[in-house]
Amino acid sequence: MLTEKWWEVAVVCPFALEDSVYWAFEQLGSKGTASQQKDDSRIVTAYFPQVQFGPSDFEQFEARLLDTTDASVQVSWKTIENEDWAKSWKTHWQPEAVGDRLLINPAWLTPPDTQRTILTLDPGSAFGTGAHATTQLCLKALEKQAITNATIADVGCGSGILSIVALLYGAKQIYAADVDPLAISSTHSNATLNGVSEAALQVELGSLPEVIAIAKQAGDLPVDGIVCNILSEIIVGLILPRLSELAGPKTWGILSGILTSKSAWVEEHLTAFGWQVVEIVHQDEWCAMTIRLADER
Question: Which residues bind S-adenosyl-L-methionine (predicted)?
Answer without folding.
Answer: 135, 156, 178, 229
